[in-house]
TrEMBL record:
<dbReference type="InterPro" id="IPR003593">
    <property type="entry name" value="AAA+_ATPase"/>
</dbReference>
<dbReference type="InterPro" id="IPR003439">
    <property type="entry name" value="ABC_transporter-like_ATP-bd"/>
</dbReference>
<dbReference type="InterPro" id="IPR050107">
    <property type="entry name" value="ABC_carbohydrate_import_ATPase"/>
</dbReference>
<feature type="domain" description="ABC transporter">
    <location>
        <begin position="4"/>
        <end position="243"/>
    </location>
</feature>
<comment type="similarity">
    <text>Belongs to the ABC transporter superfamily.</text>
</comment>
<keyword id="KW-0067">ATP-binding</keyword>
<dbReference type="Pfam" id="PF00005">
    <property type="entry name" value="ABC_tran"/>
</dbReference>
<protein>
    <submittedName>
        <fullName>Sugar ABC transporter ATP-binding protein</fullName>
    </submittedName>
</protein>
<keyword id="KW-0547">Nucleotide-binding</keyword>
<dbReference type="GO" id="GO:0016887">
    <property type="term" value="F:ATP hydrolysis activity"/>
</dbReference>
<dbReference type="GO" id="GO:0005524">
    <property type="term" value="F:ATP binding"/>
</dbReference>
<dbReference type="InterPro" id="IPR027417">
    <property type="entry name" value="P-loop_NTPase"/>
</dbReference>
<dbReference type="InterPro" id="IPR017871">
    <property type="entry name" value="ABC_transporter-like_CS"/>
</dbReference>
Length: 251
């Protein structure tokens, strides 16, 4: 079932064309790898889907309904969550406090309302259990590995019961063991029926976890392929321009 669809999406910054007529689809429970060189337009595309930018032209559809996001909050309310490369975590706070950051649970004592840490710890623990992560709600983020930090960021997206999760370079600058943990977290999202758009420069990660691969070059979509029908060498050729373009996804 189609979850997200982009039709002819473009973004211009004055005379600079960051994106030009990009059309893509993302099904429910599918992981789509988005690849391209620096400046190819990957981050711009994600920011348009996430509501940070409005497209200069084109349309976005979420489960068949037209979307017009004016700000990130609009996209979040529609079920689109983002895990950015820097994760935006507070090192001096616990895992549970980071999961609920800005959405803290509170309880009332007459006219006084206080943060309900017990409920937050319990709910965060349930989310980590769903992800089969060893992260504990009371652990401080500054003492965590890269894989555990990703688990916190992903658990925060699950709190909102998302339909689409956008992930920007989640396996950058972490160890091989931690990469395996993060890729397993992505599979857990897919198993829950959540659609994932994964931006990555790491070819092994994309081929390990993605159902499809799309390649952007200079703001244009030059390939949209089932992972099983391509190879790292071919994708590299598409990224660099050695291969012009390919479309192999069945209509």
């Amino acid at each position: 079932m189609e979850r997200l669809r982009l039709e002819g999406v473009g973004k211009h910054f004055g005379a600079i064309r960051a994106l030009d007529d990009v059309s893509l689809t993302l099904a429910g429970g599918e992981v789509l790898g988005l690849m391209g060189d620096n400046g190819a337009g990957k981050s711009t595309l994600v920011k348009i889907i996430a509501g940070n930018f409005r497209p200069s032209h084109g349309s976005i559809y979420l489960e068949g309904e037209t979307c017009d996001f004016h700000r990130p909050r609009d996209a979040q309310r529609s079920g689109i969550e983002v895990v950015y490369q820097d994760l935006a975590l507070c090192d001096n706070m616990s895992a549970a406090s980071n999961v609920f950051l800005g959405r803290e649970l509170k309880k009332s004592f007459g006219p006084v309302r206080i943060i309900d840490y017990r409920s937050m710890h319990r709910k965060a623990g349930e989310l980590f259990a769903q992800l089969k992560s060893e992260t504990r709600p009371r652990d401080l983020v500054r003492r965590m590995s890269g894989g555990q930090r990703q688990a916190v960021a992903i658990a925060r997206t699950l709190l909102a019961e998302p339909r689409v999760v956008l992930m920007d370079e989640p396996t950058a600058a972490i160890s091989v063991r931690q990469v395996a943990e993060v890729l397993e977290l992505i599979r857990r999202l897919r198993d829950r029926g959540i659609s994932v758009l994964l931006i990555s420069h790491r070819m092994p990660d994309v081929f390990s976890v993605c159902d499809r691969i799309a390649v952007l070059r200079r703001g244009e979509l030059v390939a949209d392929m089932l992972t099983e029908t391509t190879s790292p060498e071919e994708v590299t050729g598409l990224i660099t321009g050695a291969i012009d373009s390919i479309q192999r996804v069945p209509a």
